[in-house]
Amino acid sequence: MLDFYSQQIANLASEGNLRHIPADTSSRPGVTDLSTNDYLGLGTDRKLREEFYDSCDVADIPMSSTASRLLSSSQKYYSALEDRLAELYGKDILLFNSGYHANTGLIAAIASAPDTFVIADRLVHASIIDGIVLSKCRFTRFPHNDFDRLHQLLEKNAGVYRHILVIVESVYSMDGDRADIGRLIELKRRYDNVMLYVDEAHAFGVEGPMGLGMVAAHDSAGEVDVTVGTFGKACSSMGAFCAVSPILKKFILNRARSFIFSTALPPVTAAWSLYVINKIVDMDQQRAHLHSLGHRLADGINALLPSGKVLPSHIAPIIVGSPVKAVELSTRLLEQHFKVLPIRVPTVPPGTDRLRVSLSASLTSDDVDRFIHTLSSVLS
Q1: Structure pTM?
Q2: Active site residue: 92, 169, 177, 367, which one?
Q3: Counting CB atoms within 10 angstroms of each CB, which of 23, 110, 327, 363 has the fewest?
């Protein structure tokens, strides 16, 4: 009965794609962690946690909601977080348990409108693809960041379908490059039946005014119909949110299955997220430092690997093209006290297996220089 699964595991192992939960290196002395999404370094900021504990009586905040949001009795913690985000974004806010819950629930609900066609960037996150599949609508994908091709697809389909939903990420999780939000808004303006959906999971806290993301940096931010942000990365918490119109919020609340049928976030998590967000909006210095590190890292990698062009970002890919080689390089780097994990199929397309370097504002310029020096030694 289990033969199929055993064979699949054997196949993955032979291809170099069998995954394991990595060993805990948090207590290993001298290891520089370049694998997490803790972009502002708040996940390891003990002082910040102690300040949060001092700011409220944590013992009075429930550790579990024990019910879905529509049934929970701990609404004040969620409402306080949503109200603060609504104040910052100028839109209605709805919380989700994770970025995966947000994308699957939102897209499946929004694209359920009759005669909907979805056009998504080729490299959008798996949760976005899963949301599209759950919606059962027709869809296509355009080459990564090729907005001329997107324009062609809009020209071809805008008169065919009643609704078109364009989906992109603002900062792409595996390559660290950005979407041209201004160009996307300009394209959307040409059509009355196009909605624009931007996932800011890897931009929230890091990019834009007050760390509110790349959409917020535009005067026309209000023309983006759905903005998604997450708390599990720069915010060092858990959960996600969408910023939408009042009509969309009411519809999503009634149709997004991942929202309706999930136990709500722990209230203490919502309280912590609110506390951290009120700190993040003033962390321009940390964001500037992170951006500086991104330029330093890109310059170093490009000097070592001139055949590939790494853009300045808090996420940098080192593409090696082989899952076995990616694992080997990751192992050798850990031996030299740098934790950088391999990224393989199906997370990235075949032939683009890589190491994914994630920066944190808690790092120093010396940390980046030491990594580049070590990487040079390992690659040679």
Answers
A1: 0.96
A2: 169
A3: 23
